[in-house]
Write a structure and sequence with these properties.
With about 375 residues, this protein is of the alpha/beta class. The chain has 2 domains: about 10-140 and about 270-345, D-Maltodextrin-Binding Protein, domain 2; about 145-265 and about 350-365, Periplasmic binding protein-like II (D-Maltodextrin-Binding Protein, domain 2). Helix content is about 35%, strand content about 15%. The strands form 2 sheets. Strands 1, 2, 3, 6, 7, 8, 9, 10, 11 and 12 form a 10-stranded mixed sheet that branches. A two-stranded antiparallel sheet has the order 4-5. Helix 2 (about 55-60) links the parallel strand 1 (about 35-40) and strand 2 (about 60-65).
Length: about 375
């Protein structure tokens, strides 16, 4: 039996990933109406030592931070259901921004208030953050879903296509995170759909057939911490995932790399937005500007919670080259047109219930 290389420290580190889990207890919000404060509901990483110190010191604004351990849908719902000022800012996936903006939950942003000239242009102009030409959110953390693989067993050439996931030699060796949007989005790209979430009836039928073909090779479907533990212990060799899983494991000496296959992949991100009903508009804008700046993003890129790519080019240039290479940020000048060229923004499809139903059927086969 292969020795499990995942010690307790690493398991705790890996069990908080990609916008679903957080390591630290929630910091409870106090005095929600205080004008020298700002209330932030965020996914993991913001709570780590040194992340917010300079903001509080330089502005005199106290950050009341609550780390969210639920879904994006729940995060957006909290803005809608909570009293004004309970949460001034949230950090959901940008896929949820358009509907939240249309529902009147988010404040329109003025691009000139933020350092978007320092951003990779493709992220500065990220389509889900805009509705009818108006900006409602800014991405400050992102990454991709492609293939994460054990490089002791597979070469880069072996995993250059999603074909490797269907190879009968790899039966039972594929692990998947239990979330339909990225997995089905990648399989839609595999089927040749440039816009993987905008499918005709026949294209969606083919996607369901593709899932059925993949199913025999999938040995495990679980939550984030379960799948990462299984990968880190080398029980499974392949996953539809990206740098947010792989980089931390690789940095700790585990034999995993990740890439975007030739068919392409889909993105994940966190997009910071301000509640339309905030009583602390100025404080919220200052905080949003802070998390767009290089000082914060350079720390966020290699947060203990999980690694991520960051859109501020100045932040990327501050990282050591080994970390930039892990996060696909080594060639900053060519990042937009080379690395991002074959990635599609993850979004919620119009026939979301059908997608979710297809995924549940896939799991239960």
């Amino acid at each position: 039996m292969k020795k499990n290389k995942l010690n307790r420290r690493k398991f705790l580190k890996y069990s908080s990933v990609a916008g679903t889990l957080a390591l630290s207890p929630n910091i409870l919000i106090k005095n929600a109406w205080a004008t020298s404060e700002v209330n932030v509901l965020a996914f993991g990483g913001y709570e780590e030592p040194g992340m917010l110190d300079s903001f509080e010191q330089n502005t005199g604004i106290k950050v009341n931070l609550k780390i969210h351990d639920g879904s994006d849908e729940e995060m957006v719902a909290l803005i809608q259901s909570s009293a004004p000022g309970t949460f001034d800012l949230i950090t959901p996936t940008s896929a949820y921004i358009p509907q939240a903006a249309k529902d009147g939950l988010l404040m329109e942003l003025n691009a000139s208030d933020f350092p978007l000239e320092d951003y990779f242009s493709i992220i500065a102009n990220w389509p889900p953050c805009y509705v009818d030409g108006k900006m409602y959110a800014i991405v400050n953390r992102f990454g991709y879903y492609g293939i994460t693989y054990n490089h002791n067993k597979f070469s880069e050439s072996d995993v250059s296509s999603y074909d490797v996931l269907f190879d009968s030699a790899n039966k039972g060796r594929v692990a998947l995170f239990d979330w339909f949007l990225p997995n089905m989005g990648c399989m839609s790209k595999y089927n040749g759909n440039k816009n993987p979430y905008d499918l005709s009836g026949s294209q969606f039928s083919k996607l369901k057939d593709t899932l059925g073909t993949l199913r025999p090779n999938v040995g495990f479907i679980g939550n984030t911490s379960q799948v990462i533990q299984a990968m880190a212990s080398e029980t499974y060799d392949l996953a539809i995932a990206g740098e947010w899983v792989q980089a931390g494991m690789y940095d700790d000496g585990l034999p995993f790399k990740a890439l975007v296959p030739k068919e392409g992949g889909v993105t994940w991100d966190q997009a910071v937005c301000i509640a339309a009903n905030t009583p602390r508009k100025d404080n919220a804008i200052k905080f949003l500007r802070y998390v767009c700046e290089p000082e914060f993003q350079a720390k966020l890129a290699t947060a203990k919670t999980y690694y991520s790519m960051v859109p501020n080019k100045k932040a990327a240039s501050q990282l050591p080259m080994d970390k930039r290479e892990l996060l696909n940020l080594a060639d900053i000048d060519k990042f937009d047109e080379v690395f991002m060229a074959n990635l599609s923004p993850r979004k919620s499809p119009d026939n979301r219930d059908e997608w979710l139903g297809a995924w549940e059927n896939f799991k239960n086969v």
